[in-house]
Amino acid sequence: MAATLRIATYNVNGITSRLPHLLRWLEATRPDIVALQELKASDEAFPLEAIQDAGYGALWHGQRAWNGVALLGRGTTPVQSRRGLPGDPADTQSRYLEAAVHGVLVGALYLPNGNPRPGPKFDYKLAWMRRLAAHARGLVGLPHPVALIGDFNVIPEDIDVYDPNAWRRDALIQPEVRAAYAQLLEQGWTDTLRALFEDAPVYTFWDHFRQHAERDRGLRIDHLLLNPVLSAAVEAAGVDQWMRLEEKASDHAPTWVEIAVEHAIP
Predict the structure, then answer these.
(1) Sheet strands (E) in the chain
(2) pLDDT tens figures, 68-86
(3) Binding residues
(4) CB neighbour burial string for 78-102, b if at least 16 within 10 angstroms, e if fewer
(5) Integer Cα distance of 62 and 153 in angstroms
(6) What is the mean pLDDT of residues 95-109?
(7) DSSP label of 135
(8) Which residues are annotated as a binding site for Mg(2+)?
(9) What's the CATH number for 4-264?
């Protein structure tokens, strides 16, 4: 039986307040590679000891009260290759971290929300997506496994939201945003959840209003983009929706893909 590598992304929406949720999920599912977003904590406040006690090494790029990304490796510490997205030296927001973990080059990202629009936050979102596309173009064709994973804050298609009309004014669904995401995929990246679920709705985020999680009225905004080397080895993918139904949970659920190791890792 071939071994598998589980790669996951999880917007924890506050690693300090939701550390117990993260630790329960790590123990229950044992992913090999994890990207975290919205740490909302400074570098000094990252709970490294608790993460290590759970069996994971970690890299993180924190920011007090906002943003923040991290990469975890089960039984290993990721080897950093990049801290911050290139293209704008003046950008101080902690939204991108890249490292080698278990033979995979992983770009962990937290793409800007962009609301309200129009305005500077929406302009920043589009500029950030252009920078991401420029950087991703140099990664997709590499001869080894590469993954871009995280909270993209993009609803790619109407099937990815419970009620498209209710979100028409939101930055996550705007034509310019969707076009930028589609152009990213055209480089050769595979949107893993959509590829496996085809025309079936699948969500990764449910806001905290009107029991949307319990009623499964969600969005798909957390994505796992794989380069051709890695996408060829995909065995399964899914969303741990049960985590969203935990008391005081993040509004996102962990999203994962399983890779056949013997095919994925040169």
Answers:
(1) 4-11, 33-37, 56-61, 69-74, 79-83, 96-101, 104-110, 146-151, 190-191, 222-226, 234-239, 255-260
(2) 999 999 999 999 999 999 9
(3) 11, 38, 151, 153, 251-252
(4) beeeeebbeeeeebebbbbbbbbbb
(5) 19
(6) 98
(7) H
(8) 11, 38, 151, 153, 251-252
(9) 3.60.10.10
Give yes or no for a contact between 40 and 10, defined as CB atoms under 8 angstroms apart: no
- The answer to whether 186 and 195 have CB atoms below 8 angstroms apart is no
More confident residue, 253 or 266: 253
| pLDDT tens digits, 12-58 | 999 999 999 999 999 999 999 999 999 999 999 999 999 999 999 99
User: For residues 156 and 177, what is the distance between their CA atoms, to the nearest angstrom?
Assistant: 8
8-state DSSP, 250: -
Name every residue whose Cβ is closer than 8 Å to that of residue 138 and which is 6 or more positions away in sequence: none
39 within 8 A of 19, measured Cβ to Cβ: no
With b for 16 or more beta-carbon neighbours within 10 A and e for fewer, the 216-247 pattern comes to: ebbbbbbbbbbbebbbebbbebbbbbebbeee
Give the model confidence (pLDDT) of 135-162 as tens digits.
Answer: 999 999 999 999 999 999 999 999 999 9
The tokens describing 190, both together, are: 């595979």
Sorted by where each begins, the domain ranges of the chain are 4-264
Residue 153, SS3? coil
Q: Which residues are catalytic?
A: 110, 151, 252
In sequence order, which residues have a C-beta less than 8 Å from that of residue 42 and are 6 or more positions away? 62, 63, 64
Count other Cβ atoms within 10 Å, centred on residue 121. 14
Contacts of 102 (CB under 8 A, 6+ apart): 5, 32, 33, 73, 74, 76, 265
Verdict on whether the full-model pTM lies above 0.90: yes
